[in-house]
Every structure is written in structure tokens, then in C-alpha cells.
Amino acid sequence: MFLRWKLLDLVSCPLSGTGDHGFQRRLKLGAPLLKDNIATMVLESPFYGNRRPKQQPGARLLCVSDLLLLGRVTIEEARALLHWLKEEGGFNKLGVCGLSMGGVHAAMVGSLHPSPIAVLPFLAPHSAAVAFCEGILQYGTAWDALMQDKARKSGMTLEQVRERMRAVLGLTDVTKFPVPNKPEAVIFVSATNDGYIPKHSVLEFQRAWPGSEIRWVTGGHVSSFILHNKEFQRAIRDAIARL
């Protein structure tokens, strides 16, 4: 959605993190930017909110393939929105950001966008494989169910299924994507005590995009965003200013 978009020259498009139903968290991030002439367009992700399948309980996805589909649709829809903003809305300065999973998606969108835009991966790993195979999310994944491989008609060991998950989610490794057109307009904001995203993943991400910047805030995966909301807003302002 737009906030007073006809009066503004700059737009940021924040993409949702895991389990982020609705818009409130991202609108809270974007609303203070209005005074800086920056509008916010918020995309409701597939599988969340009003787009959640009836058979899906809450935010927990039923299949690994749903995670890949969620990402692909989010990326293509965000790219379409950015194209519309430029061609139909007449905006020249655009940015895309996202929290956690949304940060990975934002990075992919920024990588694939044909012209320079601000890219802000917030609290994001370089690959979803890191979050699910190394971070806390590994304890919320139904490994027992994944070990029962009906196609093979035999079970898999936990180590085998973890490696298979890592291989499948390797498709989300953003370090294998092209470097954005203007890497100096890429600012990572990451947390010093993030149980979901290890530091080495953030550093690997930044090294793959020379010229980009990392900013560290104290706290965990959730607390850092709550306690340092202004730092995330400042990063958006700074990245867009670099266009």
C-alpha cells in the first residue's frame, strides 16, 4: 500500500519475515520515513495473512516446497511492483528491504533488478539453508517427517535428510546471484547475538558483494529490531541517499 504516494519521490518496499502475518511491523518501520519524503509499499506474502492456505495452521508451512514457492512468488511480485513504480508511478529512486527471510528475498530482488536500487537485507543470512540447518529453526523443523521418503520407499538418516535440505535450500544462496548494480547502496543490518543467523553467514554475504556495508546492532533476532528500530530506518535513508 502507499502512504501519500503522490507527494513523494522515494519508495521503499519491505518484504516480510518468517511468520509475519499482516502489515503492522513493516508499517511501523516505514511510517517515520514519511517526514523524509520516503513512502512505503507493503506486500503481503503468499502463505501468510489473507493469502494463507486454508489447510495451513498458522505460519507453519506444510512442505519444504511451499518455502521455495513462497520465495519465488514474493520475488516476482516485488519485481513487478518495482517495475510498476518506475514505469507507471514515475519514481526514480526505489529501495527494497526485508526482515530475516524477507531480507533474503529483498537481496534477490535487488540482485535481479535491471537498474540501481537501494537494497537492505535486515537480519538476513546469505542462504535459507543457514537458518534451517544451523540456526534455531532447525529445532522447529519436522525432521522425523522428512526422514520418511516415500519416493525411495525407505527411511533416511537424520544426517542424510539434513544434507538433502541443505542442498535443496542451496537454491536460495544469494552469494551465487549477480552483484546489484550499485553495491554501495546495499546496507546490511545484523544483530550481534542473533540465534537464527550466525555472524559468518552475514560476513560471507557482504564479501560476495564488494562495496556493500554491514551495520551491527546489539540484541537478538527479534529484540534488535524492537530496540534499534531507528537504526533500521536510518539505514533505509542512507541507502536511498546513495542512489
What does this structure look like?
The chain has one domain (5-241): Alpha/Beta hydrolase fold, catalytic domain (Rossmann fold, 3-Layer(aba) Sandwich), CATH 3.40.50.1820. It is an alpha/beta fold. Helix 2 (64-87) crosses helix 3. The chain contains 9 helices and 8 strands.
CA distance, first residue to last residue? 23 Å
At the fourth level of CATH, the homologous superfamily is Alpha/Beta hydrolase fold, catalytic domain
CATH topology: Rossmann fold
Broad shape: globular
CATH architecture: 3-Layer(aba) Sandwich
What is the residue-averaged pLDDT? 85
The strand line-up of the biggest sheet is 2-1-3-4
> What is the gyration radius calculated from CA atoms?
18 Å
Residue fraction in strands: 5-15%
